[in-house]
Amino acid sequence: MKRIIYLACFLAAISAIAGGILAFVNDMTYERINEMAIASEKENLVKIYPSGAFEEVTFSEDSGLIEKVFKVDNGAYIYKISVYGYKDYVSYLVAIKDDTIDGFAVISVNDTPGYGMRIDEPEYADLLKGTAVNEDVPLISGVTITTGNVAKGITAAFTLNDSLGGN
Amino acid sequence: MAKEMWENFKSGFVKENPVFALYLGICSVLAITTTLNNALGMGITVTIVLILANTIVSLLRKITPNEIRIPVYIVIISTLVKSSELLIKAYAPTLDTALGVFIPLIVVNCIILGRAEAYASKHSVIESAVDGLGKGLGYTFGLIIMSVIRQVLGTGVLNLTNPFTGNMIFEIQIIPADYVISVFTQAVGAFLTFALIAAAVSALNARKQTKGAK
């Protein structure tokens, strides 16, 4: 019996020391890892706001489509969204300012050329720009599956934007 | 004793190469040897973890109760691996994206637990650290050979980038792009390369043994 207690205490002590070391390393690297994560996102973020300063925001929402949220220094929020397109995931950014879409950029899309791929053309970004919170998100005819799902992501972003207090 | 240590250190490269002679930690070897960059990054990380793990296990060898030695080793190794994972994420993000899940998987790399159990738990701190360095460099050496063969045959290009800045250090086109065998960048190529090198190492060791017997 004594032996068992000794063994448990020994393992607990080793684990406690290990936990302490990990807490220290985590503390040391936490900020830098965050900076690095923002830096890798930033190449995409600057497509919408070339001279903005970005800060990642923590959030919770139910749709599960929104991956990340960034606050921009001009008051806008950028939402990184991933939805299933026609045959693969579409990852894109939507900037919302004053309850209106202020920018749209596709990060990755792997759909049919001439159909789903058309969401990556500047025409679609221009079409989306200016859509306000209660309006229907414009779709492209013939690309209803991909743009329909993209629109679902945008609707989720509007809902989250409301709860984040963005305007 | 110094001579013994040197012999043990040397044996890690060919005679007891952890990958090609002891067949330890092969999973990650097959997966990450697509480029020289990945091989070097993984090799150096494993070497550092192996030296530290061996040293700590050896330091604690007299007070570690025999019944729970394996859990104690696992806690030590996973702490080291998690720390190096965080440091790589912070300072060499390109390496982190390239190696991905294989960094945390160093925890279950049999070389590290194997050396802790078979060597460091029975030898002095310095001997264990040297053993870690030798086996770690042997592992790195194995990875480099595999990755050079696979990268050159598979893509025709051999290059090296600085993991901390992402700058290219050198790049040479060895085989024209039209004549590459792209299967070498895939899993099949990994198995083929591994099998051929392991056979060569095994033949070399067998020949040495018969010579020694005469």
Protein topology:
The complex is a heterodimer of chains A (167) and B (214).
Chain A (H helix, E strand, L loop, with lengths): L1 H47 L5 E4 L8 E7 L4 E8 L4 E9 L2 E9 L13 H7 L15 H21 L3
Antiparallel strand pairs in A: 1-2, 2-3, 3-4, 4-5
Chain B lengths: L1 H10 L14 H7 L3 H24 L9 H23 L1 H7 L10 H11 L4 H31 L1 E5 L6 E6 L13 H27 L1
Antiparallel strand pairs in B: 1-2
Helix pairs in contact in B: 1-7, 3-4, 3-6, 3-7, 4-5, 4-6, 6-7, 7-8
Provide a short characterization of the protein structure.
The complex is a heterodimer of chains A (167) and B (214). Chain A is α+β, with helices and mostly antiparallel strands. Chain A has helices at 2-48, 122-128, 144-164; strands at 54-57, 66-72, 77-84, 89-97, 100-108.
Report what the structure shows.
- The complex is a heterodimer of chains A (167) and B (214).
- The longest helix of chain A is centred in the N-terminal third of the chain and has 47 residues.
- In chain A, a hairpin with a 2-residue loop joins strand 4 and strand 5.
- By secondary structure, chain A is α+β, with helices and mostly antiparallel strands.
- Chain A is built from 3 helices and 5 strands.
- Chain B is built from 8 helices and 2 strands.
- A two-stranded antiparallel ribbon of chain B has the order 1-2.
- In chain B, helix 7 crosses helix 8.
- Chain B is globular.
- Chain B starts with a helix and ends with a helix.
Oligomer: heterodimer
Gyration radius of chain A, in Å: 22 Å
Biggest sheet of chain B: strands, sense, closure? 2 strands, antiparallel
Shape call of chain B: globular
Number of strands of chain B: 2
Share of helical residues of chain B: 55-70%
For the terminal residues of chain B, how far apart are their CA atoms? 27 Å
Succession of helices and strands of chain A = HEEEEEHH
**Percent of residues of chain B in beta strands?**
5-15%
Largest sheet of chain A: 5 strands, antiparallel
Count of DSSP-assigned helices of chain A? 3
Specify the structural class of chain A. alpha+beta
Please give the order of strands in the largest beta sheet of chain A.
1-2-3-4-5
Number of domains of chain B: 1
Tally the structural domains of chain A.
Answer: 1
Q: How would the global form of chain A be characterised?
A: elongated
Query: What is the CA-CA span between the terminal residues of chain A?
Result: 65 Å
**Chain pair with largest interface:** A-B, 17 and 19 residues
Number of helices of chain B: 8
Spans of chain B of at least 5 consecutive residues whose pLDDT stays below 50 are none
